[in-house]
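Fig. S4 source data, part A: sequence.
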Amino acid sequence: MAEHALEARGLAAGYAGRRVIEGLDLAIARGRFTALLGPNGCGKSTLLRTIGGQQAPLGGEVRLGGVPMAAIGARARARQVALLAQGAQPPEGLTVEDLVRQGRYPHRRMLRGWSAEDAASVEAALQRTGLTGLRGQMLDRLSGGQRQRAWIAMTLAQQGEILLLDEPTSYLDPAHQLDVLGLVGGLVAGQGVTVLAVLHDLNQAARHADHLVLLKDGRIRHQGPPAGVLTPGHIREVFGIDMRIIEDPETGGPLCVPRRVQPARDETGEGGRP
């Protein structure tokens, strides 16, 4: 088995007439939680889709388990890699179990009915995400955190070893953010799932991820363990803001605290309005 779950080599990615990423090299360690961080428009989501095979590269190559992605069919790829897009919306009228069952699509064959293996995979996904008691609930009646768990359960039903998440905590309140990231961290630590996630919150990334990648203008500026990546200098370089880094009292890792911004002064030197 290859040491790295996914690799990008000299990767160029983007859209017609616009390259967002150029000459990027990145290796995603198997069984670890890697977080992509950077300012808006820096190429995080484009990189996630391209490295997961959902978007064709404009140059270079992506390898899945050491094999060129271009040589792997879409269905075979979907059996290994599951991607949860930002703000994914299910069709109306689905229950939790209906959504999770959709994750079995890559394993289904024509003219073959629902199998015992399919049922077992769906049941395992519901159990791993704590949703067995909500299996019959309509998705539109769930909280944001519960819906996100249902989407993650769908990806787990694919039985892929690699889970790609594009801003999985967006639009969730703090309690549900912790719930979802705790679930993802448990999948990595307890199940050996490889996770690559786009995150915006530096402190969430520091607490939950093993490896951080800081992107700016489509290029990797810094990567490594949280303590080595989240430094005042690196954050100023990538985000253009001043941070004080202190020890997280819960984990011992880095905790980013924004420096206080001084109020603007008028021409008389007095703060505030005249």
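Fig. S4 source data, part B ends here. The chain has nine helices and twelve strands.
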